[in-house]
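worker-03 picked up job from queue 'complexes'. Input manifest follows; two sequence lines, order preserved.
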Amino acid sequence: MREVIREQSETGINISNDKQVMPSAISLNDLRLCFGKAEILKGINMTFPAGKITSIIGPSGCGKTTLLRCINRLSELATTCKIRGDILLNNESIYQIDPMLLRRKVGMVFQRPNPFPKSIKENILYGIKATGLKVNSEEVVQNSLTQAALWDELKSRLDDSAMSLSIGQQQRLCFARSLAVSPSVVLLDEPASALDPISTAKLETSIVKMRDKYTQIVVTHNMQEARRISDKVAFMYLGELVEFGDTDKIFEDPDKPATKDYIIGKFG
Amino acid sequence: MAGKKQSELRNGLSEKRGNGTVFILLLPLIFTLMGVIFASLILIDNSLGKYAVPSLITASLGAVFLLVYARVTSHSWQRTLIIIMFLGIGSAFLINLMPTIFFGFHILGVFHRSTVSAILLMLVSLPTFSFSIFYIFGATPKAQDLSRYPFILLPIIVALAAFGLIIYKLLVLGVPHFSWRVITSNFIWHGWSTQVWVNGWPVTISYNVQQIGIGQYIMGTFLLMMMVSLISLPIGVGVGLYITEYSKGATANIIKFATNSLRAISVFAIGLVALSVVRSSANTFLAPILSGFYYNENGVRNAASGSFITASIFISMLVIPIIASATEEGIHSLPHDLTEASLGIGASHNYTIAHIVLPWALPNIVTGLLLGCAETAGSLAAIMLISGTSQYGINPFTQSTSLSVFIYQCLVTTDQSFKKVEGPYVYMAALILILITLGLTIASLILKKRFSRSYRGT
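worker-03 finished. Artifact:
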């Protein structure tokens, strides 16, 4: 399956985009996070390489989603949240820039599809209009929908309401929406957990196709999915990074025994 | 022993569909239905009280039939039926044979025997009616569900009957005097009036009535609704938005409490404050606006006794809480993922509020606005206290008028010519007021559905 998806990405569509933003690397320096008294993240040090797809796997409650939401500063919106440590986007601390500007560079796709209750076109153009950029809207819509493999299905009904799509299409629309603002990093929080296998396969194909254009960080519960799509895998347990390495190495010959136990299913 | 009982029970159940048993059940059904109808008729028209006792006896007879049937088919006594039977017979006995000992409700010293007997009749026949339905449908759990329908339907019928009675009376008394000319023309009086004493009471007689109509009252109602909406909509939506989005914790709770308390304050307290504000602005530049002015025939500006503007400012104090709580409810119903998605894509907080939150809350805001309009149309106390009673047109700077003011005046005025001339149209005015409220409600439902479809996707 992984070979098939790799092949498909090589014959992908070439999209020439003058305003192409280069993918960026993200480094976490000793990141610690507390919600009130509970310590969720206990000192994470890692680097997500630019232009590659990294998966974060681990059992429920180990802090994967919280880590992801730290990167685009959504975790701070909760009032009891305290963060120590630093996150660097291309060697620039994200806590020094305006969160709004950060979120334009770091997009996010959520677990349950949440398209806005507007038309498909307005969904895609929402981010651009919010930031006030002047773009050729038709070109942007076509580019984004093509990158998410939705253009052929939806090109005739761009003015329909986004809520009339199926769940798989809505999730791909959310993916396209986050790509429309030309981010350099895309965060995906269990993107396929609410989808059926066919939609999952389509979404995974789109993610793999975008490999060298964006840095993608995927949190997933599904180890097979991590194996299929990612270049590097990080295994987290109870708020700590246990192991981080290439996909093949983690799944076939991991260093730590905890990783091995999780992979073979001793705990989950 | 158990087997014998079971087979008997089975026989009993299969027997119930025979013709004989159903006929026996129809009799109590008819008796108790007649009992229910008679009870309601007696409550409406007390002179039918002499039918109470026979109805009680027939309803108790119905209970006896049902008891016999229950005993025969399922070998059980229904305790409720026994109690009802004794209640029916006992109350019939008491009402009939000992009228001097049985005391009814003493309302203003009058002996209301028919009311009490009607209540007792209803108490006896309604449960028995349910029981007879239960047995007719075969004494199954589904039949038990069906047998509850009389209790459910009775309040519905009462509510509909009350509403129907009001509409019927208004139609009967109002429609014969209807004409388009009356509705669209203003009431203008030019002449003079004198006061005479008739039977010890002062009576005003006016002469030279020039034009009959209720046009300015209807237009005044609409003008008042418009001005109140203009003032209270921005403030109400702003308060609702501030409470939910911009302030946290204690401040939000205090403001929410204060807003809801505005509704709980008596209208007269608000009116008193309004009156004192108007009086204290007597010699300042605000005086013409707040207490009204008009130009008489020589072009001289005179002070009037009130203005629409004052009225709308102070009625909007009653309407702002309605709109604010509607907005708040709408914003609370917004799912969190939408705000997160909008923030995650790089939109600012204010952009999210303008483009996601407020459109989502729009159906609720529209409902709140139209509820506020309905309240304005019916509010009388504020207008009477603050802003004078009537004018001959709809100038927003002189006294305010409204349909409620017109109805009040028709009932209270001692001006006999006014009553003779405009009196017949008071029922028409009430009907128009009801129609305005009805139209507003229907409009709010339609708009809410339309906005919900386009702004919420459902």
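worker-03 released lock.
Chain B has two domains: 2-147, 183-456.
DSSP finds 19 helices and eight strands in chain B.
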